[in-house]
Design goal:
InterPro entries: DUF3135 (IPR021482)
Number of helices: 4
Strand content: under 5%
Helix content: 55-70%
Shape: extended
Protein name: DUF3135 domain-containing protein
Pfam families: DUF3135
Number of strands: 0
């Protein structure tokens, strides 16, 4: 398994070769997912996709970090909820409404 380079090397990559740092992030993430159990791989890939979408929305590195921290806080809140009050995770019911195409309204009225 690949090891994370020292902090100073990562900082230099972030400043001078951000594409190399991004390639390292993706390679290490993929390696972790490949080494996970087959049951966990789909969930990890979905989580990785979500993280990539958050990163893509970032306007700059600080904005991206703030958005990722907010995502992490939301996940931790949900984890705490699952531990402390698991019944609340399934209490919500969705209201199902029929889909109507625009222009397909009943003309007889």
């Amino acid at each position: 398994m690949q090891t994370l380079p020292p902090f100073d090397e990562l900082r230099t990559m972030a400043e001078k070769e951000p594409e190399k740092l991004e390639a390292l992030r993706l390679a290490m993430s993929e390696e972790i997912i490949r080494n996970a159990s087959s049951e966990m791989q789909p969930r990890l890939r979905a989580q990785m996709s979500h993280i990539n979408q958050v990163i893509a929305k970032g306007k700059n590195p600080n904005h991206t970090n703030i958005m990722l921290m907010a995502e992490l806080q939301q996940q931790l809140k949900r984890f705490a909820q699952a531990l402390n009050a698991p019944q609340t995770l399934t209490e919500h019911q969705a209201e199902i409404k029929p889909f109507a195409r625009p222009g397909s309204q009943d003309k007889s009225a």
